[in-house]
Structure of EfeO-type cupredoxin-like domain-containing protein:
Amino acid sequence: MRRLLFAGAAAVLGVAAAACGGSNPVTVTGGHGPGDGHMSAMAAPPEGAIRVGLRNWSVDPAVTSARAGKVVFWAVHEMDHAHGHDEGGQVHDLQVLKKTGDGSWELAGQVRNLGMGEAALLELNLEPGEYELACTVVEETTSGVVSHYAKGMRTPFTVTGS
């Protein structure tokens, strides 16, 4: 039986998880189970949303930059890949991480627990800077611990001036 280990994933990866709030409001359409706001990956994203495909072991945004201000991500756990026996990856997250002045990462917002074929919206107010789109799920399988981030589920993303 697999057990997802979300607590401590940020510490293991060295991600500084700062609270979202103040000047960076977040709207998440999504949750943790049936009827919670997760949508089918087949649903059309809202106009202007950036589609971010999540699959073992990649994060694939339709574009790698956006202008500062309101940015809407459409996180989709892709259906076009198979999960090997005990390899993990049944659930993916999308974290938007901002690089800080000291080189560490700060959590700007996230969508959690997307099962295969599910999608969710993440609306953020982003300032110019360097970002990373990542999945920081850490799973325990019978073969050992699987870190999605360590397996390559991350990609750079840039926010330019408004």
Q: What stands out?
A: The chain has one domain: 3-160.
